[in-house]
Protein backbone atom coordinates (compact mmCIF):
# COMPACT_ATOMS: atom_id res chain seq x y z
CA UNK A 1 0.00 0.00 0.00
CA UNK A 2 1.50 3.33 -1.02
CA UNK A 3 1.49 6.51 1.05
CA UNK A 4 -0.82 8.08 -1.49
CA UNK A 5 -3.25 5.21 -1.10
CA UNK A 6 -3.16 5.62 2.69
CA UNK A 7 -3.71 9.33 2.39
CA UNK A 8 -6.71 8.85 0.09
CA UNK A 9 -8.26 6.49 2.62
CA UNK A 10 -7.64 9.03 5.35
CA UNK A 11 -9.26 11.76 3.25
CA UNK A 12 -12.29 9.52 2.81
CA UNK A 13 -12.48 9.03 6.58
CA UNK A 14 -12.31 12.78 7.20
CA UNK A 15 -14.96 13.43 4.62
CA UNK A 16 -17.20 10.68 6.03
CA UNK A 17 -16.98 12.06 9.56
CA UNK A 18 -17.62 15.62 8.33
CA UNK A 19 -20.76 14.38 6.62
CA UNK A 20 -21.98 12.85 9.85
CA UNK A 21 -21.41 16.18 11.61
CA UNK A 22 -23.58 17.83 8.96
CA UNK A 23 -26.22 15.14 9.40
CA UNK A 24 -26.21 15.78 13.16
CA UNK A 25 -26.40 19.52 12.42
CA UNK A 26 -29.43 19.00 10.18
CA UNK A 27 -31.08 16.98 12.94
CA UNK A 28 -30.67 19.67 15.62
CA UNK A 29 -31.64 22.39 13.14
CA UNK A 30 -34.95 20.60 12.57
CA UNK A 31 -35.31 20.10 16.33
CA UNK A 32 -35.06 23.85 16.91
CA UNK A 33 -37.50 24.63 14.08
CA UNK A 34 -39.97 22.04 15.39
CA UNK A 35 -39.66 23.27 18.98
CA UNK A 36 -40.53 26.79 17.85
CA UNK A 37 -43.39 25.50 15.70
CA UNK A 38 -44.67 23.55 18.71
CA UNK A 39 -44.61 26.74 20.78
CA UNK A 40 -46.27 29.06 18.29
CA UNK A 41 -48.96 26.51 17.38
CA UNK A 42 -49.34 24.93 20.81
CA UNK A 43 -48.73 21.55 19.21
CA UNK A 44 -48.04 18.82 21.75
CA UNK A 45 -47.50 16.38 18.91
CA UNK A 46 -44.64 18.42 17.43
CA UNK A 47 -43.13 18.88 20.90
CA UNK A 48 -43.05 15.08 21.22
CA UNK A 49 -41.19 14.80 17.89
CA UNK A 50 -38.43 17.05 19.28
CA UNK A 51 -38.09 14.90 22.39
CA UNK A 52 -38.04 11.69 20.32
CA UNK A 53 -35.03 12.96 18.41
CA UNK A 54 -32.98 13.83 21.49
CA UNK A 55 -31.85 10.24 21.92
CA UNK A 56 -30.55 10.06 18.34
CA UNK A 57 -28.67 13.38 18.68
CA UNK A 58 -27.00 12.23 21.91
CA UNK A 59 -26.10 8.91 20.28
CA UNK A 60 -24.53 10.68 17.30
CA UNK A 61 -22.40 12.83 19.61
CA UNK A 62 -21.03 9.75 21.39
CA UNK A 63 -20.47 7.80 18.15
CA UNK A 64 -18.71 10.64 16.32
CA UNK A 65 -16.51 11.36 19.35
CA UNK A 66 -15.56 7.69 19.59
CA UNK A 67 -14.65 7.56 15.90
CA UNK A 68 -12.64 10.81 16.19
CA UNK A 69 -10.48 9.25 18.91
CA UNK A 70 -10.01 6.13 16.84
CA UNK A 71 -8.94 8.17 13.80
CA UNK A 72 -6.48 10.25 15.84
CA UNK A 73 -4.95 7.13 17.40
CA UNK A 74 -4.70 5.31 14.05
CA UNK A 75 -3.75 8.13 11.66
CA UNK A 76 -1.71 10.34 13.98
CA UNK A 77 -2.68 13.47 12.09
CA UNK A 78 -0.88 16.81 12.35
CA UNK A 79 -1.51 20.39 11.21
CA UNK A 80 -4.81 21.00 9.45
CA UNK A 81 -6.09 17.42 9.68
CA UNK A 82 -5.60 17.43 13.46
CA UNK A 83 -7.24 20.85 13.69
CA UNK A 84 -10.23 19.55 11.75
CA UNK A 85 -10.63 16.58 14.09
CA UNK A 86 -10.28 18.67 17.25
CA UNK A 87 -12.69 21.28 15.90
CA UNK A 88 -15.19 18.54 15.04
CA UNK A 89 -15.04 17.34 18.63
CA UNK A 90 -15.97 20.82 19.85
CA UNK A 91 -18.53 21.26 17.07
CA UNK A 92 -20.54 18.19 17.99
CA UNK A 93 -20.47 19.29 21.63
CA UNK A 94 -22.08 22.56 20.53
CA UNK A 95 -24.60 20.79 18.33
CA UNK A 96 -25.61 18.54 21.21
CA UNK A 97 -26.17 21.60 23.39
CA UNK A 98 -28.34 23.16 20.67
CA UNK A 99 -30.39 19.96 20.74
CA UNK A 100 -30.67 20.37 24.53
CA UNK A 101 -32.05 23.88 24.11
CA UNK A 102 -34.64 22.59 21.61
CA UNK A 103 -35.56 19.89 24.10
CA UNK A 104 -35.99 22.49 26.85
CA UNK A 105 -38.35 24.49 24.63
CA UNK A 106 -40.36 21.37 23.76
CA UNK A 107 -40.72 20.43 27.45
CA UNK A 108 -41.87 23.96 28.23
CA UNK A 109 -44.52 23.72 25.50
CA UNK A 110 -45.81 20.52 27.07
CA UNK A 111 -45.91 22.15 30.52
CA UNK A 112 -47.68 25.27 29.20
CA UNK A 113 -50.26 23.09 27.44
CA UNK A 114 -50.85 21.00 30.55
CA UNK A 115 -51.55 24.16 32.53
CA UNK A 116 -53.90 25.36 29.76
CA UNK A 117 -52.57 28.87 29.13
CA UNK A 118 -52.64 29.10 25.33
CA UNK A 119 -54.91 32.05 24.56
CA UNK A 120 -53.56 34.46 27.16
CA UNK A 121 -50.00 34.17 25.89
CA UNK A 122 -50.57 35.01 22.25
CA UNK A 123 -48.52 38.21 22.06
CA UNK A 124 -45.11 37.20 23.46
CA UNK A 125 -45.24 33.88 21.64
CA UNK A 126 -45.20 35.71 18.30
CA UNK A 127 -42.23 37.81 19.45
CA UNK A 128 -40.38 34.69 20.49
CA UNK A 129 -40.98 33.21 17.05
CA UNK A 130 -39.27 36.24 15.51
CA UNK A 131 -36.13 35.78 17.62
CA UNK A 132 -36.24 32.05 16.99
CA UNK A 133 -36.27 32.59 13.23
CA UNK A 134 -33.12 34.71 13.53
CA UNK A 135 -31.42 31.96 15.55
CA UNK A 136 -32.52 29.21 13.15
CA UNK A 137 -31.23 31.23 10.19
CA UNK A 138 -27.87 31.64 11.96
CA UNK A 139 -27.71 27.91 12.59
CA UNK A 140 -28.50 27.08 8.96
CA UNK A 141 -25.88 29.56 7.77
CA UNK A 142 -23.14 28.22 10.01
CA UNK A 143 -23.83 24.61 8.99
CA UNK A 144 -23.60 25.74 5.39
CA UNK A 145 -20.31 27.49 6.22
CA UNK A 146 -19.03 24.27 7.81
CA UNK A 147 -19.99 22.22 4.73
CA UNK A 148 -17.93 24.51 2.47
CA UNK A 149 -15.36 25.57 5.10
CA UNK A 150 -16.33 29.12 4.17
CA UNK A 151 -14.72 31.52 6.68
CA UNK A 152 -16.45 34.60 5.31
CA UNK A 153 -19.83 33.07 5.87
CA UNK A 154 -18.70 32.00 9.36
CA UNK A 155 -17.65 35.59 10.02
CA UNK A 156 -21.12 36.84 9.01
CA UNK A 157 -22.73 34.54 11.59
CA UNK A 158 -20.34 35.82 14.23
CA UNK A 159 -21.15 39.43 13.44
CA UNK A 160 -24.92 38.87 13.47
CA UNK A 161 -25.04 37.33 16.95
CA UNK A 162 -25.56 40.79 18.45
CA UNK A 163 -28.96 41.01 16.74
CA UNK A 164 -30.22 37.92 18.57
CA UNK A 165 -28.92 39.31 21.88
CA UNK A 166 -30.76 42.60 21.26
CA UNK A 167 -33.91 40.70 20.35
CA UNK A 168 -33.62 38.77 23.61
CA UNK A 169 -33.23 41.95 25.68
CA UNK A 170 -36.28 43.51 24.04
CA UNK A 171 -38.31 40.36 24.57
CA UNK A 172 -37.33 40.20 28.22
CA UNK A 173 -38.45 43.79 28.78
CA UNK A 174 -41.74 42.99 27.05
CA UNK A 175 -42.32 39.92 29.21
CA UNK A 176 -41.59 41.92 32.38
CA UNK A 177 -44.15 44.58 31.36
CA UNK A 178 -46.61 41.80 30.58
CA UNK A 179 -46.17 40.24 34.03
CA UNK A 180 -46.51 43.58 35.78
CA UNK A 181 -49.75 44.34 33.94
CA UNK A 182 -51.25 40.95 34.77
CA UNK A 183 -49.49 39.14 37.65
CA UNK A 184 -51.62 36.02 36.98
CA UNK A 185 -49.43 35.43 33.91
CA UNK A 186 -46.18 35.40 35.92
CA UNK A 187 -45.76 31.66 36.10
CA UNK A 188 -46.30 31.11 32.35
CA UNK A 189 -44.27 34.17 31.47
CA UNK A 190 -41.30 32.79 33.39
CA UNK A 191 -41.58 29.72 31.16
CA UNK A 192 -41.36 32.03 28.15
CA UNK A 193 -38.37 33.82 29.68
CA UNK A 194 -36.55 30.48 29.67
CA UNK A 195 -37.66 29.78 26.10
CA UNK A 196 -36.28 33.17 25.05
CA UNK A 197 -33.04 32.36 26.88
CA UNK A 198 -32.83 28.98 25.13
CA UNK A 199 -33.13 30.72 21.76
CA UNK A 200 -30.44 33.23 22.69
CA UNK A 201 -28.21 30.26 23.57
CA UNK A 202 -28.82 28.67 20.18
CA UNK A 203 -27.44 31.91 18.73
CA UNK A 204 -24.42 31.69 21.06
CA UNK A 205 -23.72 28.13 19.96
CA UNK A 206 -23.97 29.14 16.29
CA UNK A 207 -21.32 31.75 17.07
CA UNK A 208 -19.11 29.09 18.70
CA UNK A 209 -19.50 26.92 15.60
CA UNK A 210 -18.29 29.85 13.46
CA UNK A 211 -15.17 30.15 15.58
CA UNK A 212 -14.39 26.48 15.01
CA UNK A 213 -14.67 26.90 11.23
CA UNK A 214 -12.18 29.79 11.35
CA UNK A 215 -9.86 27.63 13.47
CA UNK A 216 -9.98 24.75 10.97
CA UNK A 217 -9.27 26.94 7.95
CA UNK A 218 -6.99 29.65 9.36
CA UNK A 219 -5.41 27.83 12.30
CA UNK A 220 -6.19 30.79 14.56
CA UNK A 221 -8.13 30.30 17.77
CA UNK A 222 -10.44 33.34 17.71
CA UNK A 223 -12.50 32.51 20.80
CA UNK A 224 -12.82 35.46 23.18
CA UNK A 225 -11.66 37.84 20.42
CA UNK A 226 -13.44 41.05 19.47
CA UNK A 227 -15.23 41.04 16.12
CA UNK A 228 -12.54 43.36 14.74
CA UNK A 229 -9.75 40.97 15.78
CA UNK A 230 -11.61 38.06 14.16
CA UNK A 231 -11.96 40.05 10.95
CA UNK A 232 -8.19 40.62 10.95
CA UNK A 233 -7.57 36.90 11.47
CA UNK A 234 -9.88 35.98 8.58
CA UNK A 235 -8.55 38.55 6.09
CA UNK B 1 17.71 9.36 23.84
CA UNK B 2 16.03 6.14 24.94
CA UNK B 3 12.33 5.33 24.72
CA UNK B 4 12.17 5.39 28.48
CA UNK B 5 13.65 8.88 28.53
CA UNK B 6 11.09 10.04 25.95
CA UNK B 7 8.26 8.49 27.90
CA UNK B 8 9.39 10.21 31.10
CA UNK B 9 9.39 13.55 29.30
CA UNK B 10 5.91 12.83 27.96
CA UNK B 11 4.70 11.95 31.46
CA UNK B 12 6.09 15.27 32.69
CA UNK B 13 4.19 17.09 29.94
CA UNK B 14 0.95 15.32 30.83
CA UNK B 15 1.41 16.10 34.48
CA UNK B 16 2.25 19.74 33.76
CA UNK B 17 -0.87 20.22 31.64
CA UNK B 18 -3.05 18.47 34.25
CA UNK B 19 -1.72 20.89 36.86
CA UNK B 20 -2.69 23.84 34.70
CA UNK B 21 -6.21 22.40 34.38
CA UNK B 22 -6.37 22.27 38.17
CA UNK B 23 -5.08 25.83 38.40
CA UNK B 24 -7.79 26.95 35.97
CA UNK B 25 -10.31 24.96 38.04
CA UNK B 26 -9.21 26.74 41.20
CA UNK B 27 -9.60 30.06 39.45
CA UNK B 28 -13.20 29.44 38.34
CA UNK B 29 -14.06 27.89 41.71
CA UNK B 30 -13.02 31.14 43.39
CA UNK B 31 -14.93 33.11 40.73
CA UNK B 32 -18.13 31.28 41.62
CA UNK B 33 -17.56 31.71 45.37
CA UNK B 34 -16.83 35.43 44.91
CA UNK B 35 -19.86 35.95 42.66
CA UNK B 36 -22.11 34.43 45.32
CA UNK B 37 -20.41 36.50 48.05
CA UNK B 38 -20.95 39.62 45.93
CA UNK B 39 -24.64 38.77 45.63
CA UNK B 40 -25.31 37.96 49.28
CA UNK B 41 -23.33 40.98 50.53
CA UNK B 42 -24.21 43.37 47.70
CA UNK B 43 -20.51 43.98 47.18
CA UNK B 44 -19.74 45.74 43.93
CA UNK B 45 -16.04 45.46 44.68
CA UNK B 46 -16.18 41.65 44.84
CA UNK B 47 -18.29 41.58 41.66
CA UNK B 48 -15.48 43.51 39.93
CA UNK B 49 -12.92 40.93 41.07
CA UNK B 50 -14.93 38.19 39.32
CA UNK B 51 -15.03 40.19 36.10
CA UNK B 52 -11.28 40.94 36.30
CA UNK B 53 -10.53 37.22 36.36
CA UNK B 54 -12.60 36.40 33.30
CA UNK B 55 -9.81 37.45 30.96
CA UNK B 56 -7.30 35.14 32.65
CA UNK B 57 -9.70 32.17 32.57
CA UNK B 58 -10.37 32.68 28.86
CA UNK B 59 -6.64 32.98 28.20
CA UNK B 60 -5.92 29.75 30.07
CA UNK B 61 -8.53 27.92 27.99
CA UNK B 62 -6.90 29.04 24.76
CA UNK B 63 -3.34 28.32 25.96
CA UNK B 64 -4.11 24.85 27.31
CA UNK B 65 -6.01 23.95 24.14
CA UNK B 66 -3.08 25.10 21.99
CA UNK B 67 -0.64 23.03 24.03
CA UNK B 68 -2.93 19.99 23.89
CA UNK B 69 -2.89 20.11 20.08
CA UNK B 70 0.89 20.49 20.07
CA UNK B 71 1.30 17.49 22.39
CA UNK B 72 -1.03 15.32 20.29
CA UNK B 73 0.81 16.27 17.07
CA UNK B 74 4.26 15.69 18.61
CA UNK B 75 3.66 12.65 20.83
CA UNK B 76 0.99 10.87 18.81
CA UNK B 77 -0.52 9.33 21.93
CA UNK B 78 -2.91 6.36 21.96
CA UNK B 79 -5.16 4.64 24.52
CA UNK B 80 -5.27 6.25 27.96
CA UNK B 81 -2.89 9.11 27.16
CA UNK B 82 -5.02 10.17 24.21
CA UNK B 83 -8.17 9.83 26.31
CA UNK B 84 -6.62 12.07 28.95
CA UNK B 85 -5.77 14.76 26.40
CA UNK B 86 -9.21 14.65 24.75
CA UNK B 87 -10.92 14.72 28.14
CA UNK B 88 -8.80 17.70 29.17
CA UNK B 89 -9.95 19.56 26.07
CA UNK B 90 -13.59 19.02 27.09
CA UNK B 91 -12.81 19.73 30.74
CA UNK B 92 -11.37 23.18 30.10
CA UNK B 93 -14.37 23.98 27.90
CA UNK B 94 -16.59 23.19 30.87
CA UNK B 95 -14.43 25.20 33.25
CA UNK B 96 -14.59 28.20 30.95
CA UNK B 97 -18.38 27.94 30.90
CA UNK B 98 -18.44 27.81 34.70
CA UNK B 99 -16.40 31.04 34.66
CA UNK B 100 -19.02 32.49 32.28
CA UNK B 101 -21.79 31.67 34.75
CA UNK B 102 -19.84 33.38 37.56
CA UNK B 103 -19.40 36.40 35.30
CA UNK B 104 -23.14 36.48 34.60
CA UNK B 105 -23.88 36.47 38.33
CA UNK B 106 -21.35 39.27 38.96
CA UNK B 107 -22.87 41.42 36.18
CA UNK B 108 -26.32 40.87 37.66
CA UNK B 109 -25.07 42.02 41.09
CA UNK B 110 -23.77 45.21 39.49
CA UNK B 111 -27.08 45.79 37.73
CA UNK B 112 -29.11 45.12 40.91
CA UNK B 113 -26.91 47.53 42.84
CA UNK B 114 -27.21 50.21 40.17
CA UNK B 115 -31.01 49.95 40.38
CA UNK B 116 -30.82 50.16 44.20
CA UNK B 117 -32.87 47.09 45.21
CA UNK B 118 -30.81 45.60 48.02
CA UNK B 119 -33.11 45.58 51.05
CA UNK B 120 -36.25 44.34 49.35
CA UNK B 121 -34.55 41.22 47.99
CA UNK B 122 -33.18 39.84 51.25
CA UNK B 123 -35.15 36.60 51.41
CA UNK B 124 -34.49 34.99 48.01
CA UNK B 125 -30.84 36.02 48.11
CA UNK B 126 -30.28 33.82 51.17
CA UNK B 127 -31.98 30.91 49.41
CA UNK B 128 -29.79 31.39 46.36
CA UNK B 129 -26.71 31.28 48.60
CA UNK B 130 -27.81 27.87 49.85
CA UNK B 131 -28.08 26.47 46.32
CA UNK B 132 -24.81 28.14 45.40
CA UNK B 133 -23.00 26.45 48.28
CA UNK B 134 -24.20 23.08 47.02
CA UNK B 135 -22.90 23.89 43.54
CA UNK B 136 -19.55 25.19 44.82
CA UNK B 137 -19.12 22.06 46.95
CA UNK B 138 -19.80 19.91 43.86
CA UNK B 139 -17.22 21.87 41.89
CA UNK B 140 -14.59 21.51 44.62
CA UNK B 141 -15.28 17.79 44.86
CA UNK B 142 -15.00 17.17 41.13
CA UNK B 143 -11.71 19.10 40.88
CA UNK B 144 -10.42 17.00 43.72
CA UNK B 145 -11.60 13.87 41.86
CA UNK B 146 -9.77 15.09 38.74
CA UNK B 147 -6.54 15.67 40.71
CA UNK B 148 -6.57 12.07 41.98
CA UNK B 149 -8.41 10.56 39.00
CA UNK B 150 -10.83 9.19 41.59
CA UNK B 151 -13.85 7.70 39.78
CA UNK B 152 -15.80 7.00 42.96
CA UNK B 153 -15.65 10.63 43.97
CA UNK B 154 -16.65 11.60 40.41
CA UNK B 155 -19.60 9.24 40.70
CA UNK B 156 -20.70 10.95 43.93
CA UNK B 157 -20.77 14.32 42.18
CA UNK B 158 -22.83 12.84 39.38
CA UNK B 159 -25.35 11.37 41.81
CA UNK B 160 -25.70 14.60 43.79
CA UNK B 161 -26.58 16.81 40.81
CA UNK B 162 -30.27 16.04 41.39
CA UNK B 163 -30.14 17.94 44.69
CA UNK B 164 -29.08 21.16 42.96
CA UNK B 165 -31.83 20.72 40.37
CA UNK B 166 -34.42 20.28 43.16
CA UNK B 167 -33.03 23.34 44.94
CA UNK B 168 -33.42 25.32 41.71
CA UNK B 169 -37.03 24.21 41.24
CA UNK B 170 -37.88 25.20 44.81
CA UNK B 171 -36.19 28.55 44.42
CA UNK B 172 -38.03 29.25 41.18
CA UNK B 173 -41.39 28.55 42.85
CA UNK B 174 -40.42 30.86 45.71
CA UNK B 175 -39.42 33.66 43.33
CA UNK B 176 -42.71 33.30 41.43
CA UNK B 177 -44.70 33.59 44.68
CA UNK B 178 -42.60 36.59 45.62
CA UNK B 179 -43.33 38.33 42.30
CA UNK B 180 -47.05 37.61 42.58
CA UNK B 181 -47.20 39.05 46.09
CA UNK B 182 -45.35 42.22 45.08
CA UNK B 183 -45.29 42.87 41.32
CA UNK B 184 -42.90 45.78 41.85
CA UNK B 185 -40.16 43.20 42.50
CA UNK B 186 -40.68 41.47 39.14
CA UNK B 187 -37.77 43.07 37.33
CA UNK B 188 -35.23 42.33 40.09
CA UNK B 189 -36.69 38.88 40.70
CA UNK B 190 -36.13 37.99 37.04
CA UNK B 191 -32.48 38.87 37.61
CA UNK B 192 -32.45 36.42 40.50
CA UNK B 193 -34.14 33.78 38.33
CA UNK B 194 -31.16 34.02 35.98
CA UNK B 195 -28.72 33.87 38.90
CA UNK B 196 -30.45 30.71 40.12
CA UNK B 197 -30.25 29.29 36.61
CA UNK B 198 -26.53 30.13 36.43
CA UNK B 199 -25.95 28.21 39.67
CA UNK B 200 -27.92 25.23 38.37
CA UNK B 201 -25.66 25.30 35.29
CA UNK B 202 -22.53 25.27 37.44
CA UNK B 203 -23.90 22.04 38.89
CA UNK B 204 -24.51 20.68 35.37
CA UNK B 205 -20.94 21.48 34.36
CA UNK B 206 -19.59 19.77 37.50
CA UNK B 207 -21.55 16.71 36.39
CA UNK B 208 -19.99 16.93 32.92
CA UNK B 209 -16.54 17.12 34.50
CA UNK B 210 -17.31 13.90 36.43
CA UNK B 211 -18.17 12.14 33.20
CA UNK B 212 -14.80 13.13 31.73
CA UNK B 213 -12.94 11.69 34.75
CA UNK B 214 -14.76 8.38 34.30
CA UNK B 215 -13.87 8.45 30.59
CA UNK B 216 -10.16 9.00 31.35
CA UNK B 217 -9.93 6.20 33.90
CA UNK B 218 -12.40 3.63 32.59
CA UNK B 219 -12.42 4.44 28.88
CA UNK B 220 -16.21 4.43 28.87
CA UNK B 221 -18.13 7.42 27.55
CA UNK B 222 -20.94 7.69 30.12
CA UNK B 223 -22.54 10.88 28.82
CA UNK B 224 -26.32 10.58 28.46
CA UNK B 225 -26.30 7.43 30.63
CA UNK B 226 -28.62 6.88 33.59
CA UNK B 227 -26.96 7.02 37.02
CA UNK B 228 -27.42 3.24 37.30
CA UNK B 229 -25.61 2.65 33.99
CA UNK B 230 -22.75 4.91 35.12
CA UNK B 231 -22.48 2.96 38.38
CA UNK B 232 -22.18 -0.25 36.36
CA UNK B 233 -19.44 1.30 34.21
CA UNK B 234 -17.48 2.44 37.26
CA UNK B 235 -17.74 -0.80 39.24
UniProtKB/TrEMBL annotation, chains A, B:
Compartment list: Cytoplasm
GO annotations of cellular component type: cytoplasm
Family matches, as Pfam families: PhoU (PF01895)
One Gene Ontology term from the biological process aspect of the record: negative regulation of phosphate metabolic process
Keywords: Cytoplasm, Phosphate transport, Transport
SUPFAM superfamilies reported for this sequence: PhoU-like
InterPro entries the UniProt entry points to: PhoU, PhoU-like_sf, PhoU_dom
Chief location category: cytoplasm
Superkingdom assignment: Bacteria
PhoU domain ranges (all copies): 21-109, 132-212
NCBIfam families to which the protein is assigned, alphabetical: phoU_full
UniProt family annotation: Belongs to the PhoU family.
Subunit structure, interactors included: Homodimer.
Annotated function: Plays a role in the regulation of phosphate uptake.
Protein's recorded name: Phosphate-specific transport system accessory protein PhoU
Organism: Scleromatobacter humisilvae
Gene that encodes it: phoU
Amino acid sequence: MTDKHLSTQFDAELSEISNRVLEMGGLVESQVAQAVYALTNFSGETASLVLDRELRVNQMEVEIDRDLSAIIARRQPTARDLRLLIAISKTIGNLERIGDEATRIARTVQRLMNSGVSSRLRLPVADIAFGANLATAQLRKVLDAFARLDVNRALEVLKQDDEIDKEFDGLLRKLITYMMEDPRTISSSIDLVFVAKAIERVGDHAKNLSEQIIYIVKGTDVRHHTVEAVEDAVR
